[in-house]
Write a structure and sequence with these properties.
12 helices; alpha/beta; 3-stranded antiparallel sheet; binds pyridoxal-5'-phosphate
């Protein structure tokens, strides 16, 4: 057995420095006695909007619902088509389907794994209503090109910012480009709650009001449902926890950037191993550090033997999921190629340079010797 063990997700010891503050925040909610849509959610919404450089944030139940309610607020309906990356997490597609529309895949740029703006035109039809770019792995998409295409074709944009809280494109925060933007506070995200949570950010007062209404049975006034809404509210306890963590996010992001820089340095020059590419205008937040190699499965196995836990994001693209068999979509070779070769290495705030060196040494040994 390995004498070394590096988990993919941060161990409990990494939570110690927040323990007292988080428990105090939870006690505050307990004592206040208001458990749904109280002061904590309202305050977190103000603080998260400010951190994202938007006017409004609306707390919702999770990231999937943040996407779904955004599409609903934009009037998406049956028969509409929405352009989505072919290689995203399935939630992006499910949100489109839940709104009654059809997800239309657009292949990524293989270098960045992000939606390739040059491929949007080929996917456009008279039914296309909008685009959901996903800042995969915390790498911002080319929002200038996507925004220009959307404007030229009168499409809306909803960013899926679940993996990129704190990232910027041309110095503007992701989550502030689209008409509405969705994020997730699932525990493993860069800004994670102690359970499910999500938010929608926007600069549009009417759209903010629309998603506020949709998250709470379609009501603005108690017991009057103006539209057929949903129950998808950010929990008061989760909001209190997120308020403790939000001010710490910039420091965690700095640590992630340092760890990514070390990976770049120590993994450089290994044959058959492709490191992440960062676009010139992007400041990523390294939700994941993803390398590519045709020998992915063997390398993953070797790292496991060496005590290093890795994951694959994602092994099966949405269009190949049984849930989407009914769409009969043609092969998406770029998505397929990326899914077959991608490997996510451990990267979490609190990891040390020595840990990165250890991972890099194991990768180098396997890739060069065998
Ligand atoms: C996590 C994630 C979601 C879904 O968020 P949940 O809060 O788990 O519903 C959507 N899109 C992407 C890209 C994600 O990583």
């Amino acid at each position: 057995m390995a004498d070394f063990s590096l988990p993919f997700f941060p161990p409990a010891t990494q939570r110690e420095d927040q323990r007292a503050a988080v428990l105090a925040a939870m006690a505050r909610v307990y004592d206040a006695g208001r458990y749904v849509l109280g002061e904590e959610v309202a305050s977190f919404e103000r603080e998260y909007a400010a951190a994202t450089g938007t006017v409004y944030a609306v707390g919702v139940g999770n990231g999937l619902e943040a996407l779904h309610l955004s599409l609903r607020a934009l009037g998406v309906q049956l028969g509409d088509e929405v352009l989505v990356p072919s290689n995203t997490y399935v939630a992006t597609w499910l949100a489109v389907s839940h709104a009654g529309a059809t997800p239309v895949p657009v292949e990524p740029d293989p270098a960045t794994s992000n939606l390739d703006p040059n491929r949007l035109a080929a996917a456009l039809t008279s039914r296309t209503r909008g685009i959901v770019p996903v800042h995969l792995y915390g790498q911002p998409c080319d929002m200038a090109a996507i925004g220009a295409f959307a404007q030229a074709h009168k499409l809306w944009v909803v960013e899926d910012n679940a993996q990129a809280q704190g990232a910027t494109w041309q110095a503007q925060p992701t989550g502030s480009f689209g008409q509405l933007n969705a994020t997730s506070f699932y525990p493993t995200k860069n800004l994670g709650a102690l359970g499910d949570g999500g938010a929608i950010t926007t600069n549009d007062a009417d759209l903010a009001a629309a998603v506020r209404r949709l998250r709470n049975y379609g009501t603005t006034q108690r017991y009057i449902s103006e539209v057929q809404g949903y129950n998808s509210r950010l929990d008061e306890l989760q909001a209190a926890v997120l308020r403790v963590k939000l001010p710490r996010l910039p420091a965690w992001t700095q640590q992630r950037r340092q760890l990514a820089a070390w990976y770049h340095e120590y993994l450089a020059g290994i044959p058959d191993l492709r490191l992440p590419t960062v676009a010139a205008d992007a400041e990523p937040v390294w939700h994941l550090y993803v390398v590519h190699t045709p020998r992915r499965d063997e390398l993953r196995q070797q790292l496991a033997v060496a005590g290093i836990e890795t994951l694959v994001h994602y092994p099966v693209p949405p269009y190949q999921q049984p849930a989407y068999a009914g769409l009969h979509l043609p092969p998406q070779p770029v998505a397929e190629q990326l899914a077959a070769t991608c490997l996510s290495l451990p990267l979490w705030p609190g990891m040390t340079e020595a840990m990165v060196v250890r991972v890099a040494d194991e990768v180098r040994r396997f890739m060069q010797v065998t």
